[in-house]
Amino acid sequence: MNINSAPAGRILLARFAWFAVFYNVAVIVWGALVRATGSGAGCGNHWPLCNGQIIPSLQSIHTIIEFIHRLMSGGVDGFVILALAAWTFQSTRKGDGPRGFAVATGILVFTEALLGALLVKLGYVTDNESVGRVIVLAVHLSNTLLLLAALTLTARSLSLAARGESQTWAGLHRARGIKWATAGLVATIFTGVTGSLAALGDTLYPARSLTAAFAQDYASDSPLLLRLRLLHPISAVFAAVFVVWLIAGSRGLLRSTPELNADQQVRLARSTRFANLVVGMLALQFALGIADLLLLAPTWMQLLHLLGADLYWVSLVLLAAETVWPAAETAHRPA
Question: 256 φ, ψ to 5°?
Fold first, then answer.
């Protein structure tokens, strides 16, 4: 028997996929450290080499921070994603959900590298405040969240397979509310993008007091990044409305069925856990956002807020998938 098709092999693959998810969260947070410390030019205008060298001189803290980020993203992460895709294709069949998500992950990690290189080659780093940087950075951040979502869905579908549940693309026609879920996830991506742009504005134009920060937002001569900061709390409220709808949908999952079989009970319990997790993470994010504002966005607070945002995004993607595209019921489960 092929070890990859055995229960132990499927469990190991699912765990590796979840490792890839949380490793990419670490890469994202370290990337924010690059931005917050002004280390984007730590490797000069060279890419993929650092200051024209494979292993550069590490005398500058900015070079160290940027070089570690390149190793984490272009080096280790590229290998992890490639290994995950190869292992997934070896262990699944044509039409299975994990294959499609693994392909999407591979495409998105490739575009992620290209967008990162574009930021470096165009000089959209450190103190650059051009409109071009805002546009490229917004696209880059959107791609990052899509990559994290694709990885999360890959890990979820592999976990379902390890538990004996199936998820195929043929079953997508049973998806309920997928248009609303997609719109809500897009709104959440917009919230994430505006949050990162607000953090960039906080880094480039630090305020000495909360009053001064509000004055910056409303001044007619303020830079674009500062005027965009108001979009973040507004978009966060609209995205929260979607979360309320999604949780309501998950609470009503299978409720119309008088008696639930074993598979339906498992799905309902899992959906409830995801809903509770999303509620908790959402409350934490609003608390971190308020603290970030009151503390005038110090670097450590920005990183903590971003970490919470990434974990919230992962839990939200899981809840959306469980609500609109549950796994097919199965007649048996592995012991």
Answer: -75, -10
Residue whose pair of structure tokens reads 């019921």 in the numeric block? 329
Residues in the chain: 335
* Location of structure tokens 């294959």: 99
CA angle 143, 147, 149 (to 5 degrees): 115
- Quote the pLDDT of residue 49: 82
Which pair of tokens denotes residue 245? 């709808």
168 by DSSP, 3-state: which? strand
Q: Pick the closest to residue 145 from 153, 133, 134 (CA basis).
A: 153
Q: What's the confidence (pLDDT) of residue 324?
A: 76
Report the DSSP beta bridge partners of residue 328: 166
Which residues have C-beta within 8 Å of that of residue 100, sequence separation ≥ 6? 169
Q: Tokens standing for 66?
A: 């940027």
Nearest to 152 by CA among 4, 308, 19, 304: 19
Q: For 238-292, how does the pLDDT look when each residue is reduced to its tens digit (9 = 90+)?
A: 888 877 777 776 666 555 555 656 666 667 777 778 888 888 888 898 899 888 8
How is residue 146 written in tokens?
């899509």
Q: Which of 145, 116, 293, 314 is nearest to 214 (CA)?
A: 293
Strand-pairing partners, residue 53, are 50
- Asked whether 150 and 101 are in contact (CB, 8 A), the reply is yes
310 torsion bin: left (phi>0), alpha (psi -120 to 50), beta (else): alpha
The reply to whether omega before 233 is within 30° of 0 (cis) is no
CA distances from 222 to 41, 137, 162, 218, 238 (A): 25, 20, 54, 8, 25
**pLDDT-flagged residues of the chain (< 70):** 1-6, 166-177, 249-266, 326-335
Q: Which helix (H) or strand (E) holds 164?
A: none
Average pLDDT, the chain: 82
DSSP states along 239-250: HHHHHHHHHHHH
Residue type, 298: P
